[in-house]
Amino acid sequence: MDDAKRHAGEWSARYVQNGMVVGLGTGSTVFYAIQKIGELIKQGLTIRAVASSERSEKLAREMNIPIVPFTSIDSIDLYIDGADEADRQGHLIKGGGGAHTREKILAYNSKKFIVIVDSSKLVEHLGKFPLPVEILPFAAELTLKHLKALGCEPRLRRNGDQQYISENGNFTADCQFKTIEDPVHLDAAIRSIPGVVATGLFANTMVTIVIAGYADGTVKEIKPHE
Ligand SMILES: O=C(CO)[C@H](O)[C@H](O)COP(=O)(O)O
Question: Is 103 a catalytic residue?
Fold first, then answer.
């Protein structure tokens, strides 16, 4: 799977152009995109970047990719990030790496959003992967009860024998649905529960291209809105 991730990640770097503000997502597939962008910078590419997590920011700095503060940008030209599942309409489940709240902010503020996955993440219907939902620690049990009422089995994510805490200081509930037929509607329903910070459902028209990598070195580009 690593080869497939590498092909998708490296392929995405061809969309990065001089002068762009580039958003860097989080995860093992984005790792390859960041490395490739780092190589292009060595060859003279000039960009400014913002990162969706401390992990990605650290990696970018190691690759001499200039990370700028959010106060110095107005929008992002191109956002590159991975996903846990992607369907043909460009709906995504994200947040397996626990960074989906910040990732959603970056995606929302981007002119183009490129999603990079290995081919095993392409699905007919979302929902096999448990949907990550970031929730406030305050009264978390009550929030979990309302999530359950929407038809899922929510589990608070653990980090070894500790509660998993996001970079925003919150809990993550991994919500196993049987299948997600209507991502737009479900996303809205979950977001209406007080205590929910953000869902890992990236529904609607956010995605410009899904790049799926295969182990044999080929890639497939899916443009959901063309
Ligand atoms: O949403 C994410 C992190 O919050 C990642 O993009 C997603 O979990 C995919 O990760 P990977 O590329 O490691 O398979």
Answer: yes
